[in-house]
Amino acid sequence: MSKASRRRLSALRILARLTVILLCLGLAALLAFHQQIPDVAGLGLILDNLAPWLGLGILVLLLMTIAVGGRGTYVALLVPTVVWGVLFGPESLPSAAVDGKDTLVVASQNVHQDAVTSARALAGSGAEVITLQELGEGQIDLVTDELKPSHPYYSVSTVGLWSSYPLSNPEPLDLGLGWDRALRADVETGSGPVRVYAVHAASARPTGHDERDTMLASLADYVEKDPSSKVIAAGDFNATSTDRHFAPVAEQLDDVHYSAWGPAMTWPRSPFAMLGIDHVMVRGIAGTSLERIPAGDSDHYALRASVDLADD
């Protein structure tokens, strides 16, 4: 090989290494600042909700780094790796299960055609409070009949809340839309009252998510003004925890941590869950754990949360 050829090869390798380094730094910046990307044509919505999956880019960059070599490229690869680990690593670690005499079990699912099967499965899982969203015509009565022996207390608007414990102060909520998409009620448990919000936020699509954003902001406002010492909100929020419009809710409530490895992805069930848009969230409650249940024929996984109502 001539000296000129070696110089060209060396120049190309240097250019390749610089390209990989810039890609590493660009991915790190995208991971850290995805919520600052303008939401033009739904780009912000897509990046926000797929943010954890951007970590797959680290594997691609690793292969590129191996191909081009260079100490600097390996150092640069550490930058997006560390950023991803800081942002998403903690929620990927399992939490300890909660079980005690003051534990309340809450289950939630966006159901489909067979709400009765979902309700039966959630009741069978030991859930004492069950909230279902997207109930079809005639399904409310069927679910109520199914749950009557174990969950005789209920409140229904466009979402449903069934409880083994008595309910008081039920109130439908429109969350800024002008028609009911949520409700709240006090569950009179043996460990004291708990304010429960059952939520079904409007759909979010790249072509439009204004109604969902309004609902999330309104929910955050309700919770902020709520004087209850213990609050649980459960349902289909149609937003992941990394969505910029989910932030107002996250400032008021804590997501119940998943008890298995990885984040609690709930939608779609087939071929595999990619987004965690369903949540159980709490305030004034320290001990919590979360499970994912494939109930009924819904395209959403159900969530089953155990919350410790004992005072600290």
Report on this model:
The structure is a single chain. This protein has helices at 3-33, 43-49, 56-68, 71-88, 115-124, 139-147, 210-225, 247-252; strands at 103-110, 129-133, 153-156, 160-163, 167-173, 182-189, 192-200, 231-236, 254-255, 278-283, 288-293, 302-308. By secondary structure, it is α+β, with helices and mostly antiparallel strands. The chain has two domains: 3-88; 103-308, Endonuclease/exonuclease/phosphatase (Deoxyribonuclease I, Chain A). The strands form two sheets. A six-stranded mixed β-sheet has the order 3-4-2-1-12-11, covered by helices on one side. Strands 5-6-7-8-10-9 form a six-stranded mixed β-sheet. Strand 7 (192-200), helix 7 and strand 8 (231-236) form a beta-alpha-beta unit. Helix 1 packs parallel to helix 4 and helix 3 packs antiparallel against helix 4 (71-88). The longest helix is centred in the first third of the chain and has 31 residues, at 3-33. The N and C termini lie far apart (74 Å). The model has no long low-confidence stretch (mean pLDDT 93).
Spatial arrangement of strands, main beta sheet: 3-4-2-1-12-11
Form type: elongated
Please compute the radius of gyration using only Cα atoms.
23 Å
The number of helical runs is 8
Helix content: 25-40%
Name the beta content range. 15-25%
Query: What would you say the CATH architecture of the largest domain is?
Result: 4-Layer Sandwich
Structural class: alpha+beta
Poorly predicted tracts of residues: none
User: Which CATH class of the largest domain applies here?
Assistant: Alpha Beta
Query: Can you tell me the CATH superfamily of the largest domain?
Result: Endonuclease/exonuclease/phosphatase
Mean pLDDT: 93
Please trace the helix and strand order, writing H or E for each element.
HHHHEHEHEEEEEHEHEEEE
Q: What is the CATH topology of the largest domain?
A: Deoxyribonuclease I, Chain A
